[in-house]
Specification:
single chain, alpha/beta, Rossmann fold, 7-stranded parallel beta sheet, globular
């Protein structure tokens, strides 16, 4: 898909990946950009930068995503592209409180579901649209320091797969963004751990990869190309891959 003239929504748009996507989409000639986030001051700054619309939104609540879409359509017309990009860092193993698991589930999975419910009916009527769901390389591989993150990111990838199976032949294209480490506030909080073993990229480089992959309408957006090789290794010999992940765990976590 060419982005010139398109109306686009980006959640998690106040900083990091969302901010970089907004700037790059504007450079591609997007007609209308709506950014959504809970960080209202930063969100307003991004909206001004791209001459777009800022809509405060808690993506864990379906009613707020419905409001987001309604406001974006009122301002810019039908939504052509929805980038479901919001995320959070709430790590835990199986013994983590239910609140940790619920937060991961609602932000990393249900937010995508709510977005699809809000925009896909209109896209199907028009026979055109694009969904870009941000997951993580952890959704294709795994995470050595959090079950809650890895599990919900796997679910995000699986949901995107089902969307591509169901809708791609009806004009609604789907891509899932699966980066390793990107220099954002989230990685600053965590520190440069195992996810940066192949290098930490800048959000702007990731945005370039997103535009290039959308232009080709490919499903996997892999700003770190090594992820494809790791995924192939995983599929070829699962037990060997798990042994390698345990060695990686021991190296980084002790």
């Amino acid at each position: 898909m060419k982005l010139s003239g398109k109306n686009i929504i980006i959640t998690g748009g106040a900083s990091g990946i969302g901010h970089a996507l907004a700037v790059r989409f504007r450079a591609e000639g997007a007609a209308g950009i709506t950014v959504a986030d809970l960080q209202e001051d930063k969100l307003a700054e991004v909206a001004r930068e791209v001459d777009g619309l800022a809509v405060p939104c808690d993506v864990s609540k379906e009613s707020e995503i419905q409001n987001l879409v309604a406001r974006a359509e009122a301002a810019h017309g039908p939504v052509d592209v929805f980038c479901s990009n919001a995320g959070l860092v709430r790590y835990g193993w199986e013994e983590a409180p239910d609140e940790i698991w619920e937060a991961n589930w609602r932000i990393h999975v249900m937010a995508h579901v709510y977005a699809v419910r809000a925009v896909v009916p209109g896209m199907l009527e028009r026979g055109s649209g694009y969904l870009v769901n941000t997951a993580s390389a952890a959704g294709l591989l795994s995470q050595i320091d959090s079950s809650s993150y890895a599990t919900t990111k796997h679910a995000a990838v699986a949901f995107a797969e089902t969307l591509a199976i169901r809708y791609a032949d009806k004009g609604v294209k789907v891509s899932v963004l699966c980066p390793q480490s990107v220099r954002t506030a989230m990685t600053t909080t965590r520190g440069e751990a195992v996810s940066s073993v192949d290098g930490m990229i800048e959000p702007e480089a990731l945005a370039d990869c997103v535009v290039e992959t959308m232009d080709k309408e490919e499903f996997l957006i892999l700003p770190h190309p090594q992820v494809r090789e790791y995924l192939q290794r995983k599929a070829t010999d699962y037990d060997r891959w798990l042994r390698g992940m345990r060695r990686l765990r021991d190296k980084f976590l002790g």
